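Marked as duplicate of an earlier ticket. Keeping the data here for the record.
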Amino acid sequence: MEWWHAVLLGVIEGVTEFLPISSTGHLTIAEKLMGYDISDPSITAFTAIIQSGAVVATLVYFWKDIVRVATAWLKGLFAKKERADRNYKFGWAIIVGSIPIGVVGLLFQDEIETVLRSLWFVAGALILWSGVMWYADRKATQKRGESDTTWKDTLTIGLAQCLALIPGVSRSGATMSAGLLRGFDRVTVTRLSFFLSIPALFAATVLQIVTRYDEITHGVGWVATGLATFVSFVVAYVVIAWLLKFIAKNDYSIFIWYRLGLGGLLIVLLSTGVIAAV
């Protein structure tokens, strides 16, 4: 992979990872337009690994919150009196909410990396999930905040996160929609989406590094992969700060319209043979 391809893909990952517009969908489209074989194990591994840059950006941005929750959770494990702390309960909620995508991702890894990489799936998911996002955005009561979060909430959101394994759905779009339907306000569901992304994306990165090390070495290359990961970290950090401010005053309409436009354009390009589905 040429260095400027790695930089561009890193920017795309950083911009789209936390916006509800599907980072994997955008990367798959971009990789296809650049002439890469999107079903190649090296490319699928690269796509998953560079998401770790966004994970690190989340860790850095929310470091104080993460330390606060982790400290309370550890104290609660060894001292019963500490278990009344809402941060202890929130820690367990994040752990429970992270389990579903790990299980589903391992069970359907082959399908995710092959069949679901088709751009027809990306186009369909972009359009169909836009309807779910619109419904969730309009029906949201937004009466609950982060302090109201329970493991039942994060389990529901975590189950929705599994749908993001289909490129085009969007992990953040799935988690935010589920959170809104559980009655949380937009800022809270956005923060929950960030927290749930950490174990999910970190696990996916480790899995790909362990199982696809040789494919990356003889395919995309580790220099390009590292460069794209670093770029995604820098860009994602900026996007996190922007998104929290934006979503505090706006709904998801701009993202919904963008998804519909991109999905429609992709269908036209596929139907006319301008680009191939795989």
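See parent ticket for discussion. Residues 186-211 form the longest helix (26 residues).
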